[in-house]
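Repro:
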Amino acid sequence: MRRAVVVIADGLRRDAVSPAQTPTIAALRVRGSWFASHRPVFPSATRVSSASFATGCWPATHGLQGNTVALLEAGRPVRHDVGDHRFFSHWRGLSGATLRVPTLARRLRGLGGAVVYANASPGAALAHDPDGDGVVRHRAFGQGPGRTPLPPLPVVAEPAGDAEMTARFLAEVLPRRPALAVLWLGGPDVTQHAAPLGSPAALAALGAADACIAAVAAGVAAQRKAGDEVLLILGADHGHETVAEVIDLDAELVAAGLKAGADSDDVVVCSNGTAALIYTAPEVALAPLGAWLAAQPWAGSVHDAAALPALGQAAEQGLAFAVAMRVDMAPNAHGVLGLARAVKPAAGKPDRLGCGQHGGLGPHEGAPFLLIDGPGFAPGATVTAPSRIIDLAPSILRHLAQPETGCEGVALQAG
């Protein structure tokens, strides 16, 4: 029986993989193919990454633009935090739909199904399957086919909750042998947002994620021994940079005379960590806004409507500009490279100086790890050709002998 098992260690950047910090991942490199140029989507953030993983498509195609987005409501952009899983019900109520292309859960419905256990934000979990074609379970909610409510997972957040969730995944999901089983860990991302990269707490979180991967790899080995042909995908959705400065972009726009007030809806800033999506109402003149953004010392790159497609985005829902914040290659206090500017989040959410963050185009936040073990992937190989998170869905579908039609990614199997 052909099956796919995926473990995502949220936020684990590629250069953090080593025999000392992640011994299991390092050891498994001899069994699978290591992807040395793996890249995330933009913004390099988990909720939009989950949708891109699930569909094999860029945000411009599936429609979920970021972790925080604006939707046009009565012709005006309104900011929403996708981390609240109820966002999808609101989105469905506005447009009649959520993601615009099929998810893996939909493609595999009736063919062995898809089960996702996730310990990131609730919205990131539901982004895998917002329309209820498979099973999604999270500590805040559960959903089965037909959007039937299921009990939440009785676990806590990362780091302790990842071990609990992994034990449940091994006991409750792998024995069911679904076509696709996804375990999306909250770590090391959650810890890295609250502790400096390279600190004892952050290193412990790397080790904890590695231990979860070790447990799943052992479970997969047992099922392979019993005769199943399992494709094992281990990876991350993005990496992290260290926050060196937090920019209150709303306040700066108001001070520059480009936004009417802190809560006005003429220009709506959606912080995505080290990136911002900027939405505008119809009356806003875009040329002065774009020129001002490009002149700011904290802006690494500014992308207008014409440049958004190169990022996998589209000028929809009032999206006028995407800003990737500046990143310097200096080390933090623990010797970890990458100092970034972050955009102050809304609603009083913290963005801690000296701790980890992501979302933009920095070289380390844009370098998650990927290791694939199974048919079509040479043991011990290092693949230098670029790969993207959107390539995972077609790789899974090819392993399961299902059509890859409609995916914008390409299957990564050799040959």
